[in-house]
Design brief:
Blueprint (H helix, E strand, L loop, with lengths): L6 H13 L2 E5 L6 H16 L3 E6 L17 E2 L4 H10 L2 E5 L11 H6 L4 E5 L10 E4 L6 H11 L8 H14 L10 H12 L4 H9 L4 H14 L1 E3 L4 E6 L1 H7 L21 E7 L7 E7 L5 H8 L3 E2 L3 E6 L3 H14 L1 H4 L1
């Protein structure tokens, strides 16, 4: 396992935790498995330490995460803004995880930043912004949950976490690595898993809950998108899939039902880049962009340059304030300008 903090940072971290009574743990917009798993693991751990803890995420998260221990207590800011805002204002510590920039909290950002209470960032995205008193950022790690594993190990606590805590951490790491099929070649990832298994997780069941349990709508959506909507640019080893809100309605699709579909075109032999465009269900006139690549193709650079976004080299996202047709044109332009890396 890795020592994640210097002695000085470690005593700062412990001091911040000791001094806190009401902790708000938050994550990024469109929370994924790592966001929900990491926030819940922290919630369980801090509750065990006698803290009053609230997990708040900016907007809805997918149904396939709803089995996670403690998930019923996650507050969705956009849904309960009036109730959540006073609780956020009362917090005396924030732990902000799986995000590197307060902007990634969207509508929730102002409310969190309005409270001057100390903030700790625990994250694995590149280039952390400067809005937290303590930044624990490890872009080399596969998930924010991995950072938390090492942190707990350094605190001498990883051996003693509950199976609920371990389950949340494992699920988070599993989600961010596609069940350990990418971004997971460091041997220490498996050391973390070994520790979590010793804490009593049922990893087979966690896999089944996340990756092997679909709604009928999701199944039909997958078929529709791959058969009808996927456009392949064979010369450029790239593909584009689009999904409008009208199509969502037609197929009875819920928000989380689209999760992971962006990865599928990369299973086509030789494919290097997959782009998934979907109309934002919460903001009219916005198209969400998801990018996935293999090997050295830099999705994050493309996303920053063309889609007002960023992320990891092989998995990035962004947003375009326009309609779908215009968004597709923008994607074509982006792919054309990166043709030298795709051919
Ligand atoms: P997804 O395609 O799953 O929405 O996002 C994949 C990754 O891209 C996320 O884990 C995050 O790192 C990054 N990402 C997604 N949307 C944005 C965005 O709007 N801005 C930035 N900077 N990164 C994003
Ligand atoms: Mn993550």
């Amino acid at each position: 396992m890795e020592k994640i903090l210097t002695e000085e940072e470690l005593s700062k971290f412990s001091g911040m935790i000791d001094n806190a009574r009401k902790v708000v743990v938050c994550a990024h917009v469109s929370p994924d498995g790592d966001a929900i798993g990491s926030t819940l693991a922290l919630k369980h751990w801090l509750t065990r330490k006698g803290k009053q803890v609230m997990v708040v995420v900016p907007n809805m998260f997918p149904d396939f995460l709803r089995w996670m221990p403690g998930v019923q207590d996650v507050k969705v800011f956009l849904k309960h803004e009036d109730k959540v805002e006073p609780l956020v204002a009362e917090a005396d510590l924030f732990i902000i995880t799986d995000l590197n920039d307060s902007k990634r909290m969207m509508e929730m950002e102002a409310c969190v930043l309005a409270n001057p209470a100390p903030k700790i960032m625990i994250d694995h995205h590149l280039e952390p912004a400067d809005f937290c008193q303590l930044v624990i950022s490890r872009p080399d790690m596969c998930a924010s949950a991995e950072v938390i594993c090492h942190l707990l190990y350094q605190l001498g606590e990883l051996e003693h976490i509950t199976s609920d805590e371990a389950t949340c951490l494992y699920a988070a790491m599993m989600c961010d690595t596609g069940a350990f099929t990418f971004n997971s070649n460091r041997a220490v990832v498996y050391e973390c898993i070994s520790h979590l298994l010793n804490c009593g997780i049922d990893k087979d069941k966690i896999y089944r809950n996340v990756f092997w349990t679909y709604s009928l709508a999701r199944m039909r959506l997958t078929g529709y998108l791959l058969y009808v909507k996927m456009e392949v640019l064979p010369e450029l080893h790239a593909s584009i899939i689009t999904l409008t809100n009208k199509e969502r309605k037609m197929l009875g699709v819920k928000n989380g039902d689209t999760e992971g579909i962006v990865n599928m075109p990369l299973q086509i032999s030789g494919m290097r880049l997959s782009v998934f465009l979907s109309e934002d269900t919460e903001h009219a006139g916005v198209v969400k962009v998801s990018l996935r690549s293999v090997d050295d193709f830099p999705c994050n650079t493309m996303s920053a340059q063309f889609f007002n976004g960023g992320g990891h080299k092989n998995a990035s996202g962004g947003r375009l304030a326009c309609g779908m047709d215009e968004a597709v044109q923008k994607v074509r332009e982006a792919i054309k300008s990166y043709a030298h890396l795709l051919k």
